[in-house]
Amino acid sequence: MNTPQPEEHVPPAVQSERVTRAILDDLRRGIHRGVIVDSPPGAGKSTLVVHTAAVIVAAGEPLMIVAQTNEQVDDLTERLARRLADELPHARVGRLSSARYLPPPRIARLPNVIVDDDINALCDLEVTVSTAAKWGYVREGSWPWAIIDEAYQMRSDALLAIASRFQRALFVGDPGQIDPFSTVRNDRWHGLIWNPMHSAVAVLRRNNPDLPVHRLPVSWRLPHTAQRVVSAAFYPYTGFRTSTGPEDRELHLRKHTDGDGPADEVLDKAAATGWGLLQLPARHTPRTDSEAVQAVANVTRRLVERGAIARSGDEERLVTPERIAVGAAHRDQVAAIKKAIGGRADKIVVDTANRLQGREYDITVVLHPLSGRRDATEFHLEAGRLCVLASRHRQACIMVARAGIRDLLDAHPSNEPVHLDEPVKFVDGWAANQTVMAHLEANRVSV
Amino acid sequence: MSAIHAYARARACASGSATPVATVRHVHLSERPLVFVPLTLAGEANAPLAAMVGTDPDRPALLVVPQPRNRDLRFGFAAELADILLPYVDSFAVAAGEATDGAERPDGPLSEDAPQVLVPNPGGVEFARLFGRSTRFRRTQGEYAVKPSVPLLGRWLTFFAECAEHPGSSMMLAATDALTLHWATGQSAVEDANLAVLMGWLAPPPGTTGAQAARLAGKNPAKYPPAGPATDPRFDKDKLVPAIAAYDNAVAAPDTSDSADSAALRRSAISQLESVLRELLEPTWKLMWQAIALLRGLPGGASVAGRWESDRARFAGFHEYLAEGGPPQARRDGAVAAARRLNRLEQAQAALEAERAFDDPLVMADHRISGEAFAGTVVAVDRDRRIRNGSGKGRLVTRPLVTVRTEDPVGLADGTKVIATARRRQDCYIHAVDRQGDHVLVTVEARSGMGRNSTPAPGSVPKEGDTLCYSSVLADRVRSLNLPDVSATPWTHGGPPTPYEPNTDDAGEAWE
Asked: Is B40 within 8 Å of B127 (Cβ atoms)?
């Protein structure tokens, strides 16, 4: 794979700063009604959103911010409110919510945030943040500026519902994440440039091909060990670099005294290389493969029992349970893993790839989406799903899988029908899976 | 595939006979459906070859295109089909938007009943869609004129095919889809799409198992021809090609001979073709009525009538639209139309899923296995619990707690809305989930359906010992989008489109 080489000689902060400046320049010049920013995992997307918002607010222009989930909205509200409290004490942030929303303490205690379910109570404020769904119910009013966060997760019909509300917009998102989906299957819109099943950015770009597209060049989250494989598998044409070099991050596991099983072995491997694959014997299993679930639980439990120290630069800290995430493809798998981990599961985040999007942890343990499967469906092959699972960590990622995934991939080459006028998906899930497996196999521990 | 389906298939495979995956019928079956079995010519895009069609099992009409590559004959076929389908559709009276008592009906026109077109498989639906597409824009005057009934047929076929896309609509059903919704076989989904093989499993002849009957049907395409629209290649080679060639020869015969002779020659060629095609279509025709009988044997689900009512409203609305001279359906959806349609389909899908589960414990079992629903016995009730509304600041409201002991793998988060199958008017929310080894204690908070008094109305709260099944798969999971008018399509989606005006190019399309 011909991955563009990152400009290693420029310090990451400088490189990142240049891109941010170019984005703001494009926005300020106002030649285009939209500016698109692609961001690899952990590249400071939220920081960019908050920064841009602060700049727009400082210029005295009303701004609406759109995110996809309530959690994302709360995150942005909190970060923006804190920043504005320092820079523009008079500015207030509106949190448009549904009537049933109860602000969590972190939002409720912010003095410059006003929560309301009625836009009329918020329309005089400098900036208003809400979910795309809630914005869809605002029928009147127009904001000169909008920032649309996680725009690749947003379906284009949701953008259609809110696009009349703003004049100009900044679209920010990660093209490598999970595509939006629909509960219905229908071929009738294939080839249309406004296909409602496509992501907001896909439709925006097909209708407005000259909009400027920027790319955030540096992942601040991912360790150096993830740079090559994640960028080759999921960002093959754009690439990115990690902010840290080979020696900047280190994971130290305390010595174990009891037992020396495969769970410990794979943990040691992951601590040393950033990746670990715990491979169970090949077998076709139901989704909630009890052995694989148990293996995920064992690895997680041993990780907590042994205790890990994560170093980043000069900073060292203990990896507490809330800094560990366990990911899987399906909700029933998540439920089974939670049950298997038992009492300690309260602090550890166990969730589906969809819900782990946009989150960050020190160490992740992942049940591979193709483990034990007989077939490789579009859902399980989706590059975005694997990308989310393989790019949440700051230190190390451990995958648990049944042997035979490579064979499964070979037996199920992508055979999605090709439609006229339909752009080809730029990251092929099949190829991405192969790339990741090839890398993981070098760090394999077999049971 | 869901766990229940996988299990049912495995059981069918082991036992050799089909396993039910539904206890009630989830589709509406008309008392007078129109069965339509179309065939196309291989190698030509949607070129009709023949069709068997009608409402009477004993008297099907056979329509044949003696030379499917001839466009005039193709639209002649369309006119013949229109002569059957249009009177059938018109036989369902549509009343204007008024009720019998003279009061204005806000919901639009009404019909007592609605037509229902049954085709053998999804390929039949696709044929209707494409044939509707190729006929609905035709002109009735000037160059390439067709009979007036042809574009009308096109609009109806398009309407039926669009209904078939709509989850829960029974206006146009594919028999294989309807059957596999209710029974699982021990074969693959691809094999299930073959009506003859599928019916082998579901209605084997006496003395054979389903598996044996299916194998027999699959091995012998001469006796059990494919249900179309594609024909068996061996049939094409051995029977169809010579019969069409004979017709071509008869037409091409020099006119010098007696014209009565050449007419007779042509007639005999056509009747030869008809007999070949009748032989091919008749087995499928019979299977279609067997399938209908099989489905009729199941009792209708409780929500089927409601969905059929929506179908009737759709039918009456479209009937009125055509009566007012509405133009043919657009070739493709604009940005707003596409988003509207997707939203509508998703809502219908969510509603259908919820209703099917509430109608049928076997469907609900799927949701119970996936943790989205649970069933059990009420072990504790706090009937008179009252709390303050709105994070503890509002007025006092009645919020009884009901604790259910279940052995299902509950996977519901606190605050999830659930409704009990036996108490559909009561919105409840998960209050606590307490896992205890082999069972789970789920406490739900009831928030409605208890009357207006400060204590719940008698019987409005479950009592200890009741057996209940709560589900979180509800119709309101998809909310309606607030989309702009077509004329206000924003720049992100290409701006307002130029409005469609029928033009002469439409009619000339793909004629030659």
From this structure: yes
Q: What average pLDDT does the structure give for chain A?
A: 90
Are residues A208 and B350, on separate chains, in Cβ contact within 8 Å?
no
Contact B53, B36 (CB under 8 A): yes
Instruction: Flag if B350 and A102 touch (Cβ within 8 Å).
Output: no
Q: Cα dist. B369→A426, B4, B199, B421 in Å?
A: 36, 8, 29, 16
Phi, psi of A183 (to 5 degrees): -80, -15
> Is there a cis peptide before residue B229, judged by omega within 30 degrees of 0?
yes
Low-confidence ranges of chain B (pLDDT < 50): 98-106, 511-512
Count of structural domains, chain B: 2
Distance in angstroms between the alpha carbons of the first and the last residue of chain A: 31
Q: Please give the pLDDT value at position B415.
A: 86
Residues B316 and B377 in one domain: no
- The answer to whether B371 contacts A331, with C-beta atoms less than 8 Å apart, is yes
Residue B413 covered by a domain = yes
Cα separation, A25 vs A45, whole angstroms:
17
What ipTM, to 2 d.p.? 0.89
- Show the tokens assigned to B118: 């049954």
| B429 and B298 part of one domain | no
Q: Are residues B225 and B288 in the same domain?
A: yes
Full domain range(s) for residue B222: 3-329
State which residues of chain A have pLDDT below 50: 1-5
CB nearest B481 (choices: A136, A204, A339): A136
CB–CB contact B492 A160 (8 Å) = yes
Q: What is the pLDDT of residue A3?
A: 44
> B312 is written with which tokens?
């009737």
Q: Residue A92 gets which letter from DSSP?
A: -
Are residues B365 and B322 located together in one domain of the fold? no
User: At what angle are helices A12-29 and A45-58 packed, to 10 degrees?
Assistant: 40
What would you report as the CA-atom Rg of chain B, rounded to the nearest whole angstrom? 28
- Residue B370 is predicted with a pLDDT of 85
Q: Using a CB-CB distance cutoff of 8 angstroms, which residues of chain A are in contact with residue B493? A: 156, 159-160, 163, 194, 203, 207
Looking at residue A261, what is its pLDDT?
Answer: 87
Rounded to whole angstroms, what are the CA distances from A135 to A54, A98, A163, A366, B303? Answer: 21, 10, 10, 34, 34
Rounded CA gap, B338 and A64, in Å?
26
What pTM was estimated for this model as a whole?
0.89
Measure the CA angle with vertex B184, ends B178 and B186; round to 5°.
135
**Minimum-distance CB partner of A184 among B349, B484, B489:** B349
> B370 and B302 in one domain?
no
Domain assignment present for B338: no
Q: Report the b/e string of B386-405 with b at 16+ CB within 10 A.
A: eeeeeeeeeeeebbbbbbbb
Asked whether the beta carbons of A65 and A53 are under 8 A apart, the reply is yes
Task: Tell me the CATH number at B398.
Answer: 2.40.30
DSSP string computed for B146-162: --THHHHHHHHHHHHHH
Q: Which residue has the tokens 């798998």?
A: A333
Q: Name the residue among B333, B346, B493 with its Cβ closest to that of A207.
A: B493
* B93 and B226 both lie in a single domain: yes
Residues B206 and B304 in one domain: yes
Flag whether B485 is in a domain: no
In a domain, B376, yes or no: yes
| 3-state per-residue secondary structure call for B70-84 | CHHHHHHHHHHHHHH
Residue B295: CB partners within 8 Å, gap ≥ 6? B25, B27, B29, B178, B179, B182
Contact status of A167 with chain B (Cβ, < 8 Å):
no
Centre a 10 Å sphere on the Cβ of residue B104 and count the other Cβ atoms it contains: 8
3-state secondary structure of A124: coil
DSSP 8-class letter at B372: S
Q: B149 and B270: one domain?
A: yes
Distance, CA of B239 to CA of B188 (rounded, Å): 30
Q: Is A216 on the interface with B (CB under 8 A)?
A: no
Look at residue B36 in the predicted model and tell me its pLDDT. 97
